[in-house]
Amino acid sequence: MSDEARERSAAERREALKEVFQRARACTRCPELAATRKTVVFGAGNANAVLMFVGEAPGASEDEQGVPFVGRAGKLLETLLVEIGLSRTEVFIANTLKCRPPGNRDPLPIEIDNCQEYLRRQVELIQPTVICTLGNFSTKLLRGDPTGITRLHGQPEVLVLGKRAVRLYPIYHPAAALYTPRLLETLREDFKRIPELLALGAPEQPPLEEVPDLAEEQPDERGEEHSAPAAGAPVRGTIDGPAAADQLGLF
Q1: Which residues 6+ apart lie within 8 Å of 13 measured at CB?
Q2: Contacts of 126 (CB under 8 A, 6+ apart)
């Protein structure tokens, strides 16, 4: 494939991500989250990333700024990336939930279920080689298994997520290391394996099949359509124009 073709493909992925973001920021599938959020924290980073991180849900700072991992846990994540020779601009960071749960409570099962297609579509579009799940919620969701992070951390495996085979690598959430210092060295040791996993390249991919596009209106299990609001209609937690691209931080 020529450089021009690769760049065109990357540009197309960026535009497709923006379309999914437009749908996510108008989403009201979880009434409580839609009513209390300030912004939809869709995700941010390199649309061409080979490494993706998936956390739990936005906190207060993320809800204010619309960008994931901007607090203390985010600073630690950036430090750990630097220690393995990477920067935040080279990866993509997202969460299991795109909206902050009130009071930073744990995500509810129905909320995770309502939101997971946005995450899966991000994986399909970004096409990462390695996905690091940070903590219990993202690990259990993407593995489809209740086994917790304590047993799984530092153990990579190849999984097919939607139509994409990836190397899934569960590690502790940086916030856990902030509050439990003994976990910091464990997290640092697990981080050191990431370059090795990236060097393996992408696993063998399943046969290509047509993937549904979230940009199209799709009825949910109640037979309702999640469509974007009418032109000019107010939507809580939205941003418009160039600011939308800034929030996504797409490189």
Answers
A1: 47, 48, 125, 126, 127
A2: 13, 17, 47, 48, 49, 52, 92
Around 11, how many Cα atoms within 13 Å sit in the side-chain half-sphere?
6
Residue with tokens 């190849």: 158
- What predicted TM-score, i.e. pTM, was given to this entire model? 0.83
pLDDT tens track for 55-70: 999 999 999 999 999 9
Q: Where are the alpha helices (DSSP H) in 38-108?
A: 60-65, 72-83
What is the C-alpha separation between 81 and 88, in angstroms, rounded? Answer: 7
Residues 111-135: b if buried by 16+ CB within 10 A, e if exposed: bbebbebbbbbbbbbbbbbbbbbbb
Kindly report the length of the chain: 251
How far apart, in whole angstroms, are the C-alpha atoms of residue 136 and residue 20? 25
Q: Give the position of tokens 């991919």.
A: 205
Q: Which domains does the chain have, with CATH numbers?
A: 8-202 (3.40.470.10)
Helix, strand or coil, per DSSP, at residue 131: strand
Nearest Cα residue to 63 out of 89, 92, 34: 34
Could you tell me which of 193, 63, 70, 57 has the C-alpha nearest to residue 134? 57
Residue 162 has pLDDT above 50, yes or no: yes
CA 14 to centroid of chain Cα atoms: 14
